[in-house]
Known about the structure:
The protein is mostly helical and 103 residues long. The chain has helices spanning 19-28, 33-42, 49-57, 64-74, 88-93, and strands at residues 3-4, 10-11.
Amino acid sequence: MSRRSPSGKVSDRRLNFLGKQIRRLRNEKDLSLVQLAARCEVLGWEVSHNTLGKIEAGARSIYDLEVWVLAKALRVATDALYPRSISPETVAKSKRPLKRKRV
């Protein structure tokens, strides 16, 4: 996914790794972004369909409580939202790559 940063540079970095699975599950359940947003609101998270679209596209990070709400709204276990594997190259391209602590 490419998008422009505030400086005008094109970025391929994802802000989350759950978006693709969220979109896949939402489509499997034949839900629109508006319908998913409505389910999330019933669970206490007021979120717009635009924000959900950004999460699915990897253009917005996602908090742990939001993961829980999305899993409940999609009626799946939270682990269903996580990819089965993530390559080191994908992590390296992420907005916030993992840093190893020195022991």
